[in-house]
Amino acid sequence: MATHLIFHEVDDVEHWLQSPKREEVFGPIGIRVRPFRDPGGSNRVGLIAEIPDMDAFQKFMQSDAAGDARKHDGVRPDTLLILDEGLPSG
Predict the structure, then answer these.
(1) Structure-derived torsion over alpha carbons of residues 78, 73, 11, 63, reported in degrees to the nearest 10
(2) Angle at the Cα of 64 (from 60 to 66), degrees rounded to 5?
(3) Residue 57 and residue 35: Cα distance in Å, rounded?
(4) Which of 5, 39, 35 minimizes the C-alpha distance to 17?
(5) Hey, what domains does the chain have and what are their CATH numbers?
(6) Disulfide engineering: 31 pairs with which of 26, 41, 58, 66, CB 3.0-4.6 Å?
């Protein structure tokens, strides 16, 4: 299982934090997440995500279900940034 950092902006941070959508859509595909917010009060939020199958995650992110979840949570898709865990090579 790989760990990733996911950052993006949302329309309403409190709504995003309280939304059950992350668990509803990520739970069934084995993804565990921990949400974070910008302490400076911006609309930037983030997740630490443990993703067992990155190919399945990327395929899911292209689905209508993922798009509906993003809309429900007010995620601004153009701000999405996913960082892979920086493990040393070799």
Answers:
(1) 20
(2) 50
(3) 17
(4) 35
(5) 2-84 (3.30.70.100)
(6) 26
With H, G, I as helix, E, B as strand and everything else as coil, classify residue 51: strand
H or E segment at 60?
helix 54-61
Give this prediction's pTM: 0.87
Residues 89/58/2/29 CA torsion (nearest 10 deg): -160
Condensed to tens digits (0 to 9), the pLDDT of residues 18-56 reads 999 999 999 999 999 999 999 999 999 999 999 999 999
Position 90 confidence tier, pLDDT thresholds 50, 70, 90: low
pLDDT value at position 47?
97
